[in-house]
Write a sequence for this structure.
């Protein structure tokens, strides 16, 4: 592999290249797919209204299991995280990403149809299958980012790609709220997002590529620029060092932080519309717009932390590990504090409530420069597997978060219920964020490389041989 000088690297860094098309495809995919995931959080209010905007629109006011419906996505999502990471690393992530996009989109189209045929059970089935397919989404995306991104662009690229998720929440909430209150009705929100996802999957199939080395049109200089610094094995598939991963404190730091982040994120994502409706008394259209506002602010704010983080790292002002810890702490402690204060806010303080929700959600964007990109730092060859493990574990908290609201009570017009929900979330944010700040690392772990893995295996074999030799002597 040719070594590029600093002038050539700077030129490639500032020029649009083949890698940027791949990043754009990932951005659009996450935008649409996360929009589909979010759609139900707003649509469920319209689906259960007693009086629809048009008599021809079917609603289901008799449903009392809305929290179960909202959490059902994560039942399937949890099951395929690690499998998705492993398969993506060994067979290439592209077609798994295409498959999850198309299958999840078909399920989105089927939600209104099966709701009419099988009731809430039909919706739950669609969401479980959607979750099963989307378990491949983030591991596949992370593998592609690790393969296509140079070291000093890593934080920025990861954030730009994943900002599609925030924008997906924004567009989905606003779009769903507007459609649900129109003459078209809530079913069309699922149809439109579903067919958009099918089209996106087809485009991704044509233009997506697993790695720079497999791209037919990439320039040699750009390929060398990417592959010379990202610590990803280009020739051999590195076997998964399970023991090293499972006993690594930096991996556990990412996992624990992911659990706390998932709890907070999905408490807010699934319950903001309900809080604004029951406590702040906003109608569904205003609800959709206000629910989307924190994520709209997040989309714009999220571009700042990665730029600062990459600058701190590339200028060697701070180490990768210190940078990750600082930004992760902001992304955990600030939302926790905002939700603690929100517990004191009542229905007469609408502006304050919305402002605190904006702060809580927007501050979480700092995590994109913390734990979320940190798994690429510590083991770029195994980022899909690590993301599967950490995000899969985090999804247990995603399942529990919406269900906890029901555990504290069924009357969502009671302020004390929401106070308990917000304060519990504060405690989880603080405890998991502290664990990460103590045990995280920014160094590439020794077990990332094939040579070190083989050395570890040889040491294990020598140990076994010594034990067996000692037994022979004794015998």
């Amino acid at each position: 592999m040719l070594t590029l000088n600093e002038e050539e690297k700077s030129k490639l860094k500032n020029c649009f290249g083949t890698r940027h098309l791949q990043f754009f495809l990932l951005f659009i995919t996450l935008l649409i797919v996360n929009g589909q995931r979010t759609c139900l959080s707003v649509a469920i209010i319209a689906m259960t209204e007693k009086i629809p905007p048009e008599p021809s629109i079917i609603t289901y006011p008799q449903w009392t299991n809305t929290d179960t419906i909202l959490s059902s996505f994560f039942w399937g999502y949890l099951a395929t995280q690690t499998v998705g990471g492993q398969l993506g690393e060994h067979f290439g992530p592209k077609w798994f990403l295409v498959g999850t996009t198309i299958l999840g989109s078909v399920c989105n189209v089927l939600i209104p149809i099966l709701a009419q045929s099988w009731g809430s059970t039909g919706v739950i089935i669609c969401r479980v299958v959607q979750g099963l397919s989307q378990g491949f989404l983030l591991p596949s995306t992370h593998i592609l980012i690790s393969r296509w991104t140079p070291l000093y662009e890593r934080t920025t690229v990861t954030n730009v790609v994943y900002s599609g998720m925030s924008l997906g929440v924004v567009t989905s909430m606003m779009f769903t709220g507007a459609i649900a209150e129109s003459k078209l009705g809530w079913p069309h929100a699922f149809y439109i997002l579903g067919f958009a996802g099918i089209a996106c999957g087809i485009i991704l199939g044509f233009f997506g590529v697993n790695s720079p080395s497999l791209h037919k049109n990439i320039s040699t200089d750009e390929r060398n620029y990417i592959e010379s610094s990202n610590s990803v094995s280009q020739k051999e598939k590195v076997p998964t060092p399970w023991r090293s991963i499972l006993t690594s404190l930096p991996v556990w730091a990412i996992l624990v932080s992911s659990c706390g982040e998932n709890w907070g994120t999905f408490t807010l994502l699934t319950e903001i519309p309900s809080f604004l409706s029951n406590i702040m008394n906003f109608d569904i259209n205003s609800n959709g717009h206000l629910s989307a506002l924190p994520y709209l602010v997040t989309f714009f704010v999220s571009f700042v932390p990665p730029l600062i983080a990459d600058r701190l790292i590339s200028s060697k002002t701070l180490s990768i590990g210190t940078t990750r810890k600082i930004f992760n702490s902001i992304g955990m402690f600030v939302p926790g504090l905002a939700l603690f204060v929100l517990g004191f806010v009542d229905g007469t303080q609408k502006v304050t409530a919305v402002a605190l929700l904006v702060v809580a959600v927007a501050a979480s964007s700092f995590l994109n420069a913390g734990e979320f990109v940190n798994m690429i730092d510590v083991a770029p060859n195994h980022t899909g597997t690590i993301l599967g493990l950490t995000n899969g574990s985090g999804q247990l908290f995603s399942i529990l978060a919406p269900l906890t609201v029901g555990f504290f009570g069924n009357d969502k017009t009671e302020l004390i219920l929401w106070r308990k929900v917000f304060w519990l979330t504060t405690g989880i944010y603080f405890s998991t964020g502290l664990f990460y700040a103590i045990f995280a690392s920014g160094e590439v772990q020794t077990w990332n490389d094939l040579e070190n893995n083989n050395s570890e295996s040889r040491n294990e074999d020598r140990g076994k041989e010594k034990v067996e030799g000692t037994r022979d002597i004794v015998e």
